[in-house]
Amino acid sequence: MWTLIWAIGWLVGVWLGQALGVGGVWEWVGTAALLALPAPLLWKRPPLGHILLALALVATGGARYLAAQPTLDETHIAFYNDSGQPLTLTGMVAGEPDIRDTQVNLRVEVESVQVAGRSQPVSGHILVQTPRYPVIEYGTQVVLRGQLNTPPSNPEFSYRDYLARQEVYSLMARPNIQIAAERVGSPIYHLIYDAKARGQATIRRLMPDPQAGLLSGILLGIAHATPPDLDEDFRTTGISHIVVISGFNIAIVAALFLRLGEPLLGAKGAAVFATAGIALYTILVGAEASVVRAAIMGGVYVIAHSWLGRSNWAVGSLFFAGVVMTLHRPAALWDVGFQLSFAATLSLMLYATPLTEAVRGWLMRRVARRETGQILGVLNDAVLVTMAAQVLTLPLTMYYFQRLSVISLVANGFILPAQPGVMIWGGLATIFGSLWTPLGVPFGWVAYALLWYTIRMARLFARVPYAIVDLPFPLWALLLTYALIGLWTAYGQLDAEKKAAVRVWWRRTGQRFALGGTVLAALLGWQGQAGTADGHLHVHFFDAGRGEAVFIQTPTGRQILLDGGYYPTVIQDKVGQQMPFWDRELDVVLVSSPSADYAAGLPGLLGRYEVGQVWLGNGGVGDSAEWNALLLAAEAKNVPIHTPQTGEVIEVGDGVRLEILHTAEDESLVVWLTYGDFSALLMGAATETAERAILANGLPRQTVVLKAGHMGDKEASTAEFLATVRPHIVVVANEPLGRLGYPHAEVLERVAAVGSPLLRTDQLGTLSLRTDGVQMWWTAQK
Length: 782
Hints:
8-stranded mixed sheet; 5 domains; alpha/beta; 25 helices; 17% strand
């Protein structure tokens, strides 16, 4: 029990080291020492000594994370990122080339860089993107010349963070490459990669694509060997795990070797046999870091479960393996592959046997004992193993990919029974075909038939309507799901007497909880409807009291705020009303002007919400107190700040497009929002100067909604501009009773002259537009 708690303490410490980001390594080490020193003295007074050791391991984990962070000085290649000048580097291709349809990604270990005409020794890895041909293999010494950049990051996906978890901090795209030497590096890796290449060549001789590509992925771990449409079908049906080497594949390999070894070697011998099979498979697919991690966890499961025969030892051993792997490389904790492999292995340890026994009992009540054994023999190696693994992996996949394959369980039930045969017959075909092609042909025919069936089923199930649905699954939902699974698992471990006591307690309190939960769910559901994505674009022109603020929610729930008005409490209230109560994320905040009427409400908002990016108008220049407070708030939260140029576009991925029509120093940001046939021209604080510049560029010719510039100032919304854009509706956001003189009478006359309806926030309150891209509806709430 305490061993498990100590291991969890270490993992929590590694996470805290990254999450807190405070203190130095020695401060964390000192904290660990202060906590650990009294532990032996209190060891005979549990649980105090045990708790102190757990806390010491938390601090030690934090120290290990900080110690693993590279120092990006002149001795590290990332120090030279974004210099704006081409650099000359020397290094070695340090991994298997990642071959895509249009390019090849190479991981290069850099040895030196040319600085001021001299060679500077450096360390670190970079990602090099090269043309599709020729492919540069592992162990090639190269001289590169090109731009070295920091990998990009955006709200949808941070490629920078993704590469950083692999200890890569620099990107060089399409450099000039000279080959200095070949086949240097590790002889062991050359043997592995050569064997993979021979295996893939054998498979391609034995069968056509896409079956050959699929078998290469399953057996050899060769990514991107199948066409994109087939990859999408696999994702839709939830069977991508059979291609991506992870805990799923290792589990099937382990189950196959255990089943083959038990009749001849017994349980312990089969465990050794299965562990050797896992090691062989790991080497065969290339021994990449993610595969090795999955193999270690699979091996731990086999030894602890089949050799030791104790599930509690198995769980403790798995967590100990997690400690060892994060001790070696703390960044592994954030690796999705590591998390999925860990979750899959833990799920197998906890649920594979109970699930098998439950299915056995169900079958024995309906069919004879012999038939029960035969059915379980078919199901256990693939279907039941995978179903057990999905108990803890499914919530993770829903969290990371924000969608659910509804057809997954059915598709897996049809497809997975064929996978052991694919691996056995495909493996035999590859081995014998490598010796002499005709020897592999009979085995290849069987493997081809099973692969054809797999692909056919995947394509069939992918065509089922609503086979996959987008399903928002935030972090709190993930944690709640795991908490419920944990309670269910803990209940399952109780003996009959304790289970009965729990049932009695539940009967006594369940009705009260049910009533209270129903009321709470109704209240939260009622409030939670606000801001929930409904497939429509929503644009809210807030009645901000003074100043302007426009809140945009896209059909898939992306949230963008343009300006924050004058009053911090008002903008926080308005934004809170439009977002679900659990949501604390804004994708982009745009600031039209440094004026307090547009920026004063935003510093406090950045302190309350997680903001993906801040885009600044006025050329990014401002000297107001509100502007400076905004910049400081963004810096404190590490929010990226961007000063856009005219013509830049924010693409949110669901048909909504925001284009910067105008921006310049001392002038407002102007945004054109489009979705289908709908458009809204959001003028911010723009006046006649910006309007003339927009007309000179010929855009836009016409818009559905015009948010008048500068709260209806007479220097904005000129007659020429209104006549050109011909808005269906003009919105004026201004303070109540027109205390600052907005909207100006001349603006009201110009709007009336073009015949556009005028909607004013001081008269109607917050104005909310909703559109499906064809029709538009609006409401007002005072």
